[in-house]
Design a protein that fits this description.
Blueprint (H helix, E strand, L loop, with lengths): L6 E6 L9 H9 L7 E6 L5 H6 L4 E8 L8 E5 L20 H10 L6 E8 L11 H26 L26
Parallel strand pairs: 1-2, 1-3, 3-5
Antiparallel strand pairs: 4-5
Length: 186
């Protein structure tokens, strides 16, 4: 690994609100089991704190819960560096009305968003206060921790071969409207 380079994993969500706790759950599975150069943090209701986190890393991996749709436990991977676009409203809104897409857009506008950002969105089912993860989300989250370990290894390997790293310039478009090109890795 190139000195000074790092990958940060952020588990987004509230562990006290059912499936919204999938981000913190995955973060807890990764804590203490990451290679040098990788770190994990949890961001609960104040997802805007993630903007400061972005300034401290070269690559960012986020895990968040997506609202209930039709397939609880389904995991979707978005690679922002490959042109994937986060849908607005991904996850739950904080008490200040900001979601993960808004926080990443702000980090981009401020020029602190890393050049490599991957978001794993796990479709939730129940968000009741005091409830743990539902069985479908728990099952997906357990496997997701292994996938993220592999993702981290690949991101750190990119650093070894000297891949150019850059932050997107402020003022360039960071689309969060659900439209745009897609990678073939979904």
């Amino acid at each position: 690994m190139t000195p000074g380079r790092s990958v940060l994993v952020i588990g987004v969500g509230n562990a006290e609100r059912g499936d919204d706790g999938v981000g913190p759950f995955v973060a807890s599975r990764l804590a203490g089991a990451l290679p040098p150069g990788a770190a994990v943090r949890v961001r609960g209701d104040d997802v805007l704190a993630l903007v400061d986190d972005c300034a401290d890393c070269d690559a960012l991996v986020c895990v968040d819960c997506a609202g209930a749709d039709s397939m609880p436990g389904r995991v979707r991977r978005f690679d922002l560096g490959c042109g994937d676009v986060l849908p607005r409203g991904l996850g739950t809104l904080s008490s200040h009305g900001h979601d993960l897409a808004s926080a990443l857009a702000l980090a981009h506008a401020l020029g602190v968003l890393p050049g490599q950002v991957v978001v794993y969105a796990v479709e939730g089912e129940a968000f009741d206060l005091g409830r743990g993860l539902t069985p479908a989300v728990d099952h997906s989250a357990s496997g997701l921790a292994d996938s993220i370990r592999a993702e981290i290894a690949a991101l750190l390997d990119l650093r070894q071969v000297g891949a150019p790293q850059h932050r997107p310039p402020p003022g360039t478009a960071l689309r969060t409207d659900g439209a745009g090109p897609r990678c073939d890795n979904h």
